[in-house]
Amino acid sequence: MAKILEVKDLVTKFYTLDGVVNAVNGVSFDLEEGETLAIVGESGSGKSVTMMSLLGLIPMPPGKIEGGTAHFTGVGGRHDLLQMTPEELREVRGGQIGFVFQDPISTLNPILTIGEQIAETLTRHKGMTKDEARKHTIKLLGQVGIPDPELRYKAYPFQFSGGMRQRVVIAIAIACTPQIIIADEPTTALDVTVQAQIVELFKQLREALDVAVIWITHDLGVVAGIAERVLVMYGGRPAEIASVDDLYERPQHPYTLGLLGALPRLDARESKRLVSIQGTPPDLLLPLQHCPFAWRCDFAFERCWQEIPSLIAVGERHQTSCFYDLEKGAPRDV
Amino acid sequence: MHRYLFSKLAQSLLLLFGVLFLVFMMVRVTGDPAALMMPRESSPEQIEAFREEMGFNDPLMVQFGRFIVEAVKGDFGNSLHFKTPAMPMVVERLGATVELAVAGLLMAMIFGIPIGLIGGFTPGGVTDNIGRFIALMGQSIPNFWLGLMMILYFGVELGWFPTFGRDTWHSVVMPAFVLGLPVLGQIVRLTRSAVLEIRGEDFIRTAHSKGLEPKTIYTKHVLRNVAIPLVSVIGVQFGYMLGGSIYIEAIFSWPGMGGLLEQSIGWRDFPLVQAIAVFTSVIVLALNIVTDMAYSIIDPRIRYGR
Fold first, then answer.
1. For residue B230, what pLDDT is reported?
2. Does A111 sit within 8 Å of B301, measured CB to CB?
3. ipTM above 0.95, yes or no
4. Domain definitions of chain B by residue range
5. Does residue B68 or residue A326 have the better pLDDT?
6. Distance (Å, rounded) from C-alpha A184 to C-alpha A43?
7. DSSP secondary-structure letter at A294?
């Protein structure tokens, strides 16, 4: 499979009045055509900022992208997103890369009809006339499972439930048949039953449109259901990248291990207390000088306090940024 | 929508009744008009006869009832000072007051909205800093003082504008400026903060994520949302300007309702004061309804009753 997105050593900082926030400290990953990659991590781990940085959606200033490359193979060939002019990026955004955001209540403009908000993407990127865009929008509304699309075209966001609004946002994201959809916690603000519907809708659309999905979440349960590969982030750095099966069966990073331990299991034989990870997330105002997880890690040893671990291959398409070999129970010799 | 309008009308009527009651009672606290109206050499019997004739000796509630009944019929009584029906005199002065308020409001909007927009889109820029300074000055300088100073410099010293009255369009410039300046300040601040707030909304990020041109985002997504608070403030301010230009009309001898009100209070001309108060209240209440309608045209959440 061809790689559609290759991100290398991305660094994003925010220059705030309190100091420099090191939001993303060297993230690398890649995405294949039609693949679903989940990015998992707690709040402040840099998941969203990573994706927003790639497409120029972080506010600059205070945000600043200080390093890295992000090659996107799209309609116009292979280009570095970070080197693109704002005009070129606008062509990519909405046209070749679609977005779904977290809170469908606030992500739609309250005073425009939902139809208008979908159609304007089409007139912008596909050069459709207003009438063509309207017809296509009605088709899209049907495709994302909104009943009576003709009627609903003229509805306003406040007339929709949260789940319905999220379907509208998804319709915007898929409107121009993008190669990638970036979904930033698309189910977090929704009820559990609605969450399941939205996940199901994503799966359908992914098959139908053959689109790659980057699914940002902190819900490992959802990840197992939808993703093929997982990137676990911690403190603005990648902790582990693996296929879903590998990640759940043989986690290679103590943080992943901790996350899995904190997950309730339906198939557990006996009832056990959920284990939480001790301590608090790292202060991103402090420049990184060692493994960001060392403070909270049960396995941390001398080296963890001296160097920042980079990704180490531990299997086929399985990488971890940890100096400690959990399987052998000893430090790695790399 | 119709139910909304109906409830607004009902509320307005209730408010109007409250205003009538307050004005009626308050003018009667100011003193006895008979003492001012009658010649100094009048005998106590003559003054008593005047009071009796005017109905000032009846209990207040009876007087109020009579006033309301007559007012509903459209009769607000004769001015004590001019001895002619009060309401037609008020209506006659309306033109001048409206002219002043419209001129002041237009000035405030024409300068205030663009300055506020530029400030909101480029906070910290030169225009923003100048605009915020003007806004601060406009809102904090007492306008009667500003009026007097302008008469002194631009009227007397430089002779650019007439110092009083309403003749050519030159006459309206100074009073309209003084009346409009605080409103300009408020419009600048409100527009600026609304733009800043809307620009930070999630749906603006969504608009960017669609790859829309910044121009489209500003006009279609930002400006329409900024218009919502702006319309309501402009409506309220216009009402204020119509009813509250008393000092300014007095300072510039502007022949409007405010000037007349100032004089009629001095004369204890109860019917005239009441007529002006009622008329101004009706205008302000009507303006509020118009503002609400305009509001609901822009904001679908209100149009569809939410």
1. 92
2. yes
3. no
4. 2-72, 90-303
5. B68
6. 12
7. G
